[in-house]
């Protein structure tokens, strides 16, 4: 039998990379089943979603109904606590590297608002301006300014002002927060942090020392003013699944320093306008729709840049219809259109109508999305 040429053997599926700073995959996009197995989290099943609805007396959020938040760690334990009449708190965050939030940035905040409203619990929001200084070509002053600008967009989401604390690392880190950082840092070896995050010898020590900063908001003792005397209060973190490495590390360390492990509920990625195989980037304003975009900007981006699921010809399109598995307009409506029946109806219309519907929906509901 003749041997296969090395050039032919090279046609292997591209390995996907998912971490807090890089998300890449082959032509098929992210394999979420593989990611769940790789990270060791659990699938969010119908029984848990039904339980959330029962305990809150609210219909499940569309992100839950449509599997957009799809994985978790110990969510069942959080629901056990709540069912017994006890509380927990929420923690989410934002790394401010752009002037404004885009629709993808909004997803965890929209879902966190739903959780806060449904469970009536406190929330802490971390702005990691220090992280962006360490990873991006930004000055300290510029990182802090972007954090303030992003905070305005986050506040506009409408969180309960009596139950919400927003802080930036440059302005807040110290005291009990820093004490917890040092406790975490002493428990994580260099080899361990390299194994979790993939740091290389070329990375400066600022990057290597950063993970404890994002870990410790999981511990209520980091906020003595807000959770005094309640050091064992459980924490639930809504986030995209690329943030999971931080909290795998945190969950490993927590029992060793006398704290509860944080629970997580994790989402799929929000696609760039050019499709799931590209990444939304602040350096390419046409890769995303920003909350500061005008109606004209939105229309241009949707019509000109939104990746189409249409066929190569009118004849093929009439015969086969659009490929809704890759069509970005449908994917965006899947995130934002509340009415399930209307979404199914839209899926049956021709591609041009899908694009028109996405633009019309975003423009007519822009103010609602910002609430």
Explain this structure to me?
Strand 8 (234-240), helix 15 (244-253) and strand 9 (263-267) form a beta-alpha-beta unit. Residues 1-12 have low confidence and may be disordered. The chain is 48% helix and 11% strand. Helix 3 packs parallel to helix 5, helix 7 (129-135) packs across helix 8 and helix 18 runs parallel beside helix 20 (351-364). The protein folds into two domains: 22-267, HUPs (Rossmann fold, 3-Layer(aba) Sandwich), CATH 3.40.50.620; 295-370, Tyrosyl-Transfer RNA Synthetase (Orthogonal Bundle). It starts with 5 loop residues before the first helix and ends with a helix. The protein is α/β, with parallel strands linked by helices and 371 residues long. The strands form two sheets. The chain has a seven-stranded mixed sheet with strand order 3-4-9-8-5-6-7. The protein contains 21 helices and nine strands. GO terms for molecular function: ATP binding; tryptophan-tRNA ligase activity. It is found in: Cytoplasm. It comes from Aegilops tauschii subsp. strangulata. This is Tryptophan--tRNA ligase, cytoplasmic.
The neighbouring-strand order within the major sheet is 3-4-9-8-5-6-7
Oligomer: single chain
For the record, the CATH architecture of the largest domain stands as 3-Layer(aba) Sandwich
Helical content band: 40-55%
Which overall shape is indicated by the principal axes computed on the Cα atoms? Answer: globular
Family: Belongs to the class-I aminoacyl-tRNA synthetase family.
Enzyme class: ligase
EC number: 6.1.1.2
InterPro entries: aa-tRNA-synth_I_CS, aa-tRNA-synth_Ic, Rossmann-like_a/b/a_fold, Trp-tRNA-ligase
């Amino acid at each position: 039998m003749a041997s296969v040429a090395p050039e032919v053997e090279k046609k292997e599926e591209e390995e996907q990379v998912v971490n807090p700073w890089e998300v890449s995959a082959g032509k098929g996009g992210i394999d979420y089943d593989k990611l769940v197995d790789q990270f060791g989290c659990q699938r969010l099943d119908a029984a848990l979603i039904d339980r959330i609805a029962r305990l809150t007396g609210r219909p499940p959020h569309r992100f839950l109904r449509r599997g957009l938040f799809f994985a978790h760690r110990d969510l069942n334990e959080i629901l056990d606590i709540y069912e017994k009449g006890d509380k927990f708190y929420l923690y989410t965050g934002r790394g401010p590297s752009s002037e404004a939030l885009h629709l993808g940035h909004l997803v965890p905040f929209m879902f966190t608002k739903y959780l806060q409203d449904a469970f009536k619990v406190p929330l802490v929001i971390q702005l990691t301006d220090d992280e962006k200084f360490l990873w991006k070509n930004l000055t300290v002053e510029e990182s802090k300014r972007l954090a303030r600008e992003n905070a305005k967009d986050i506040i506009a989401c409408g969180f309960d002002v009596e139950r919400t604390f927003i802080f930036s690392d440059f302005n807040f880190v110290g005291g009990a927060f820093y004490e917890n950082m040092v406790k975490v840092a002493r428990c994580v070896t260099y080899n361990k942090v390299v194994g979790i995050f993939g740091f290389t010898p070329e990375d400066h020590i600022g990057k290597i020392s950063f993970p404890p900063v994002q870990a410790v908001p999981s511990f209520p003792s980091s906020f003595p003013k807000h959770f005094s005397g309640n050091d064992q209060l459980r924490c639930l973190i809504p986030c995209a699944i690329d943030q999971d490495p931080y909290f795998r590390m945190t969950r490993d360390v927590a029992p060793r320093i006398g704290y509860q492990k944080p629970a997580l509920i994790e989402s799929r990625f929000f696609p760039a306008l050019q499709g799931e195989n590209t990444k939304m980037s602040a350096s390419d304003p046409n890769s995303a729709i920003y909350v500061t975009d005008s109606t004209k900007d939105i229309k241009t981006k949707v019509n000109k840049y939104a990746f189409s699921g249409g066929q190569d010809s009118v004849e093929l399109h009439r015969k086969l219809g659009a490929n809704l598995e890759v069509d970005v307009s449908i994917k965006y409506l899947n995130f934002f259109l509340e009415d399930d029946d209307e979404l199914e109806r839209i899926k049956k219309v021709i591609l041009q109508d899908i694009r028109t519907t996405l633009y019309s929906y975003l423009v007519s509901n822009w103010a609602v999305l910002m609430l």
